[in-house]
Amino acid sequence: EKGGYEWFMAKEIQEQPQAVADTLLGRTGESGELVLDELRISEAQLRNVDRITFVACGTAAYAGMVAKYAIERWTRIPVEVALAHEFRYCDPIADERTLVVSISQSGETMDTLMAVKHARDLGALTVSICNTHGATIPRESDAVLYTHAGPEVAVASTKGFLAQITACYLLGLYLAQLRGESYADDARVVLGELQEMPDRITEVLDRLDRVREIAHFMADTRSVLFLGRHVGFPIALEGALKLKELAYIHAEGFAAGELKHGPIALIEPGQPVFIVVPGPDTPHGLHGKVVSNIQEIRARGARTIVIAQDGDTAVEPFADEVIRVPRTSPMLQPLLTAVPLQVFAMELANAKGLDVDQPRNLAKSVTVE
Ligand code: M6R
Q1: Closest atom of ligand 1 to CA, residue 161
Q2: Of 3, 30, 201, 327, whose CB count within 10 A is highest?
């Protein structure tokens, strides 16, 4: 069933273009508008929403963090991301105008399920973004938006994650459409460009040889840092989580702007640092700010492994390695930049002789609190 691959994870990484394509499939109408009838929450109720809270754990929560940037921009509705196990116990604020969106690949994660039940008790509208048909969380929710990534077997989530980001974006664009928001220009672009993402992801997959080599060189590494900014920040967190769970290496993800508030003290000669660089056209000059961060840490001896868009030459003077991804609009970058980090963690685990599909101490779905 591994289809000729050594591990399910390798297979599932390769299936990511299809996972995204299938999640998009059949969800746009003839004139390009989004059609999400399956949501089965009345348009009036959705128009009434004045707060969105994502509840999820682990990688699924990072999908929510990515989506927060996009959905707030497109809908102007405040979005919060809560770890499901914290949500329940923090006396959360939610009522019938709150849309609580759970994200869960398995649909069986106990922490997330209990958060959904709690949200319902508070009167919130609950939507489940889930990859498993008929699982408990979608059954306990008012509505469901399935991701169509196909079964994910490896403990480490990969195609599930990209499909979750895709589904969250569909939900955000749909809410913007419903509410008649004059789409921010980038939302229009994203809607069209989303359809092209499967091809872009395939391009990333076709150029990962160097990442594999780097992983094999780094088999003895004890600590790796990941930096990102804006939608690249949750991707940095995801890169670190993958490395922890698969290769048992201490890893931390940071928002690049946070460096000078503490983490830069960790930089010593030879410290490997991955940097997810926003595209040069990202608003607010964020690209330049991250390039400065790379320069700062390189000056302190960091070994910089930079993930940057094609044509971004500004990073080159400060990069020990550059991993290239195709150009996209800023909100869509996570669908590309996550991929080399998945492959890096998988190959490092392999280089250390570890069980890629079934890391120690972990289960595919965490059905206990
Ligand atoms: O099935 P779920 O999406 O609810 O699982 C949530 C997390 O347990 C899961 O994403 C976990 O963090 C993965 N092993 C990460 O690769």
Answers
A1: 10
A2: 201
State how far the alpha carbon of 194 is from the alpha carbons of 28, 187, 267, in Å. 11, 10, 37
Out of 244, 289, 352, 364, the active site residue is 364
Per the DSSP assignment, residues forming a β-bridge with 109 are none
What whole-number distance in Å separates Cα of residue 73 and Cα of residue 78? 9
End-to-end, the C-alpha distance of the chain in Å comes to 31
* Atom number in ligand 1 closest to CA 112: 4
Containing 303, the helix (H) or strand (E) segment is: strand 303-309
ipTM over 0.95: yes
Percent residues over pLDDT 90 in the chain: 88
Q: 364 an active-site residue?
A: yes
Pocket of ligand 1 (CB under 6 A): 57-60, 104-106, 109, 112, 155-157, 241, 245, 365-366
Q: State pTM to two decimals.
A: 0.97
Give the whole-angstrom CA distance, residue 108 versus residue 60: 13
**Choice from 87, 146, 155, 157 to test ligand 1 binding pocket (greatest atom count within 8 A of CB):** 157
Q: Is the pLDDT of residue 37 over 90?
A: no
182 pLDDT above the threshold of 80: no
Mean pLDDT of 6-21: 97
Residue with CA closest to ligand 1 atom 11: 58
Distance of CA 35 to the CA centre of its chain: 23
Per-residue pLDDT, 29: 82
What whole-number distance in Å separates Cα of residue 312 and Cα of residue 182?
Answer: 31
Both tokens of 144, joined, read 């469901």
